[in-house]
């Protein structure tokens, strides 16, 4: 816990520029801790600035929980979210310390999450306002922008990860290329050392390179012009085909002029009335969106105020309409029918213009598809296209081929069904009686051998035999086929009861399976609420156990305090009164104060004698050094002879 506190204090001092230590941080109150948490979240840009002391409690709770939701804070495992939320809003020290530790240990994740939450959060809109078509369109645009932002953010993160490695690789490649270029230049300089007229040759080569680049540009320009010419010619052909193929266009000059006048009127209406009206509407919507985007993020109070204003304006409009109706009274508006007719004509005009616009768009699409199909047909068939009787013959041949194909396909499907049934029955028979499989294998081998012999004989005699002999051979094979069918008939008779038994067993199995599935679904549906109830009860039991433990601790503290109080009361009522708890504590305090006072006196005495003691220590140290030197000189062998005179107070060494 102390390491966690040290980490929190260190990171907060570095992040927010505070000057906390462990004692100051531990002494912070509930509101101060919450204000510190809010300041840290504001530093991570998870929300706007709040003042815990001045703002309302409900507003502070909502905004704080919203900020923590923006950074995706989760309660610790084994803690109820509701309890964690209440303790956090109450300013519990342990809970706030846990949140601060999580935020400071995951700063990069928190900053990234808060940044994404600012742009990925969908605003809460009341249902009655969300039903508006304009608001719904704005929400759709907002959701599309959110999806686009997600894609751009993912690409940006990938580029940030790959950017460093790419730059390093580019630098290495550029260094290698630079070395290669330097070597090439050195080689070229060596080769050009003995060449005369170097400058003239370089100038001519430069001009040649410029002309080659110019030729490439002209070639590319020529190719682009050719493609443009081809597209323009195709477009011209398409327009000519459309003009010659339209049967609805009038043929006479007056009809053509009339048709052109109608088109001019329609285009004038579209340009002067319809399109400016649509542009004004779009400009108004754009202005509304810009004002909404420039405003700050609305809160619940702002939305409620706007809703109240809307209701007040609607009520005023209703009152004005009623007043107008009351003032007009029985007076008949003579221009009302004409207004209605004008509005109907305008609506019809707008509808017809929109319909004409849609028809023109569909006509252009059909013309483009027609031209593409015609070009594809020409590429496939060339200029030769079937017409008249040849086309009818070709269609009739296709019809006969399609009928033959359908008939053969139906026969093939029936054969496939029969083959499936026979293979299934054969499998059932083989599982019931394994000897049948062996008999069938022997029969197949025998038939294969017979067929091989027949094929060999037929190949050898086919050239000699006539059509009559071949017909006899076909009759013999048909007779053998009938014999084989007669041999298989008893096996088929045996299969029928087995097949019937299998069908009955299959039906019973399906019935039992349906009953089993129904019972399992019923049991699972009944078990689900029981599991939920059991989980709720276990959670409630854990909460109650925690409350019981807290109450037990409080009761034990209260009982101990009650015992102390009862002892004090009894002691005060006794005649030989013992010293009370307070008196004993005061006595201990006075004793401790005396001890502290004595220690302070000793400290002052020691500090006053510190200089003399240091001087004495230095003298003793010098004495010890001197004695060490004497011992060292006495232990070392004398380099030359001498005599030492030792008296009572001194020593003298005489060298000779």
Give the DSSP E fraction (strand runs of 2 or more residues): under 5%
Give the strand order, joined by hyphens, for the main sheet: 1-2
Query: Rough shape?
Result: extended
The tally of strands reads: 2
- Broad structural category: mainly alpha
Report the biggest beta sheet as strand number plus sense, adding barrel if it closes.
Answer: 2 strands, antiparallel
Topology:
Layout: H1 2-16, H2 22-26, H3 30-43, H4 57-70, H5 81-90, H6 93-105, H7 107-120, H8 127-130, H9 133-191, H10 198-245, H11 253-294, H12 300-328, H13 336-381, H14 389-432, H15 434-461, H16 467-573, H17 581-608, H18 610-635, E1 642-646, E2 651-655
Antiparallel strand pairs: 1-2
Helix pairs in contact: 1-6, 3-6, 14-15
Give a brief rundown of this model.
The chain has helices at 2-16, 22-26, 30-43, 57-70, 81-90, 93-105, 107-120, 127-130, 133-191, 198-245, 253-294, 300-328, 336-381, 389-432, 434-461, 467-573, 581-608, 610-635, and strands at 642-646, 651-655. It has 656 residues and is mainly alpha-helical. It has a two-stranded antiparallel sheet with strand order 1-2.
Task: Report on the architecture of this protein.
It is a single chain. The chain is mainly alpha-helical and 656 residues long. Helix content is 83%, strand content 2%. A two-stranded antiparallel ribbon has the order 1-2. A hairpin with a 4-residue loop joins strand 1 (642-646) and strand 2 (651-655).
